[in-house]
Amino acid sequence: MVLTPKFSVSQSDDCVVVKIFVPYIRVSDAEIIADGTEFTFFCKPYLLKLSLPSEVEEDERCSAKYDPEEENGVIIATLPKKNKGEYFPGLDLSSQLMLRRKLKDDSTYSFPSIEVVSETTNDNPTDSADVEVGMGESISESNDLETPNISLGCNTYGFNQRYSGVLNDLRDELVDMISVRCPDSVPYRERRILRLQAEGVDFNEDRYIGDWIEGENDAIYIESMAYTAPWDMYWEQLKVHHSTASGPSESPLGPPSATEPVSSSACESDSVTTALPPSAESEPPLSVVEDQREASVFDAIGGYSDDEQETQRKLPRRSYLIPSSSAEERSVLLSLVDILFAYAYDCRTTQGEPTVESAYTISRVSPSLSWLEYYEVRNDESSNSRSQLTNLERKCEKSKTLEGIAIGTESTSTEVSISDSITLHQVAVFCARRALIYPYLRMWPLIRKIFADVVRILLAGQRMVLKCLLNIRRIFERTETHYLLNKVFIDDYCVWLSRLENGSSVCKALGNELAEVKKFITKGDLQLGLLDIERAYTCDEDSESYESSTTSSNSSTESDNESNTEENVSVQLHDTDSSDVANASLGLESLSITPAQSENCDDQPK
Questions:
Q1: If both were cysteines, with which of 46, 327, 357, 453 could 5 make a disulfide (CB 3.0 to 4.6 Å apart)?
Q2: In terms of Cα–Cα distance, which of 217, 208, 225, 218 is closest to 443?
Q3: What confidence score (pLDDT) does residue 155 get?
Q4: What's the Rg (C-alpha) of the chain?
């Protein structure tokens, strides 16, 4: 049985350094071969084959040393570059280095019609076909490798619709993992209809209005909005790197504003690769300088952890028949957006520390993971993003001229239009709908923040996107049911993206497109009646406030009237009593007899 050892690759201007961790070996039996772009190390029971981006030379400058003290044995091989000063891109992408490069630069090469689902080599130094990946878990490189399970007559799902029949016998586990029941018997278009109907039933108006009123005071919401995510640190570090390398005369690099379109000057600068996803024929490959800068900034914020590097080495060795700028690639990228949206939501609301609810949150917010959604794209629209954005701009401008639209009115219909070909705007709407229906925080400002996060992740390039996918894989792997989503989605995404030619260019183009689409997403697009709910609450609150103030005013008026009446009565009574007393007193004075007069009367003779 052959083991693939743990390794790392670095470079300087003159050479490439391969560090191989091989504990407890007999160094005298080790063999190292460097031939052009191919590097091979063999020492029982370890075998490592790498394909380097450019050529190295095997001459007197080559060296290898063994350090038995470091982690019980490390071999450090130094390989001089054929072209001194040449930069080798992608040396931190382990799975890309382990892919055997059978496709050479040949103008006569035609795209293959057979997809390699597993890789079997005939030059294996041992007779066994089993290869152990990592340091203890073995898989078969020929027959036991996880391959697409396609059953005739069954509906497909998963990454690029590669699977069917995988979830047939897991109905009990499906309850906690996904929302669709019997996915093998439900076509993807019917799954979308069922999903939208379920969302309409599950939407809670009281919960939404409660978060709309009091959500800003929620401690989790406050912490989520203030959280600095890894992709935020990437952009801060990129600004520092650019200001250090270019000087203060040039503006720092950063993602395009969410409220301003990407200008032509910005497209020509180093900050972004392209403003919109171009075709494969017109898109130049990612420049060496840009890849070098991306790699250095990514390493500055921590790069890939040891666990993430180990996961990359354990990924299956596959290739995919997904031509560049094709409808298949567009569909895969659209699903990638909703998966990243769900992950960004969980990462921000948990402060980057996954909880026991993280797997549920990610799988519920993402339409692809919860309903095995497939975004069908027609070939004529796979590279027609500019016209789609232009239509959105015209729709937005037209809506502003209509009375009531500018202040946020929406259609009373609660049905979302479903077309045969899905656009990025529709995917964004699907994500926003689910974010207002299922997770804990259901607030529009948070959703806008999450879209900005996804833009930053994509604009950070291939490495940052892959790191997010590896984090999702780790979260799902630790659960009892959601690990199956790794099988049908996440593992394939990690392999495909890590081996995608010009992967950073593709990711950045998608990020720029999403930054444009993000500006045209409104509450009315969600077709959940959000604005009507808000207006109804506002009207009810104003009505209650008016009734309360009117009642208070009437009560105050009645109280004042009663008080005035009592005062008038009191004054009248007081005046009457005084007059009567005065009159009575006057009468007594005129009729009364004083004691002296009484005595005089007695003295008078009768």
A1: 46
A2: 208
A3: 85
A4: 38
